[in-house]
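Checklist before submission:
- one chain only
- standard amino acids only
- sequence pasted in full

Submission:
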Amino acid sequence: MEHANLLPAFGPAIPEMVLAAGAMLLLMFGVFRKESPTAVASYGVLILFVITAFLVAGQGDLSMTTFSGMFTVDPFTRFVKLLILLAASAAVIMSVTFIRREGMDRFEFPVLIALAALGMMMMVSAASFLSLYMGLELQSLAIYVIAAFHRDNAKSSEAGLKYFVLGALASGLLLYGCSFVYGFTGSIEFNTVAQQIGTGKPSIGLIFGLVFILSALAFKISAVPFHMWTPDVYEGAPTPVTAFLAGAPKVAALALTMRVLFTAFPGISPEWNQIVVFVAIASMLLGSFAAIGQNNIKRLMAYSSIGHMGFALVGVAANSAEGIRGVLIYLTIYVIMNAGVFCCILAMRRGGNQVESINDLAGMSRSQPVVAFLFAMLMFSLAGIPPLAGFFAKFYVFMAAVQSGLYMLAVIGVLASVVGAFYYLRVIKIMYFDEPAEVLDRGMPGELTVVLGLSGLFTMFFFVYPAPLLAGAQFAASALFP
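Returned file contents:
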């Protein structure tokens, strides 16, 4: 009888269990295989992601919990998990040719991405600070390794070390904040914490705990003032790793931030709302102004990601179902745009070697006209130019802010978008109007062509039929704001 009850009890966590077991099997397969099985491991991880996605989607529309209430599944977690698996799959696809060319042909790479995705899925389903920390650390430890995966490259080693040291600091802040919350409420479960807080006046100790927790989560989404690691790690890490960092971890951390704020601390929303508004404004402004002087395309994308997380936080600050819906739409569009941009960056090769200077893009419109056109469309979309997908991403979060009375926040967001448009347009100007010193290599690996093509089509034609994404985000948001 005990075995018969095992499956229903652990049912909500079956996708994570399958992903964990699959990752372990691929790891064993790689260890015992004599020749390098990197390509097999990569395609194995992609198949594993597809199976996991079907399991997540097949869980229905119910809300369920397991592991004594520490692990929860609802429409919100399902939406975010599918987005994480999409972003992780794109990163694995982009890495297939790159790791072979760059002498990083080791099967552990895709397996580590799978383990990082597992950690993110655990984070998103966390319903207590214990499961939150376990998921966060599993994700972080895997990413520390892949950031430094190019062992023969000093920049890659430096990126991994910087991310590890600052990530350890963020983990310490998170644990310190959790201990404060536990000390002043007597619980580490989100729902119980919310009940203990109630609607009374919160204690100073609880506010301190919340500030520490938000500081750690702001580090994970590279929001100001905890953004200092982002440009160096983005530049130093292998490009597919940078693409992964810019997508899946941001989605997971922002979803976790919403889960913590709206589930554990709804009773003190005036206190945390001030922090979120400040972080959103600071991130939007720094991301817009600091990127102007960048000459390395990956550093530019680092500051771009800081700015975009600021825009997404505008929806969190709205503290409403419309705000959550706006954030989910924003994250989906951002992940897909980002995948396309990094395919274009991976296509920047001269003489078989990767180049990263923005000036190296000069003349790309003549050597690779189709890639240049799609790159330009993605840059316009990141800038928020209508009718491309990026415009609608910003539109929904700004509208949520306006509906919540945060007019000044919406105005600052629009002005920051205008400033940010400058450096996106500069990339387009260099591609189409500057004379090249040397022409970039022609051609792009097949897998990059597929990802770039899908990303470009989605970005350009999202406005034609946005209903599925809007309805899915609305339904997911209803789980946090019924």
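Reviewer check: The CA atoms of residues 271 and 410 lie 20 Å apart.
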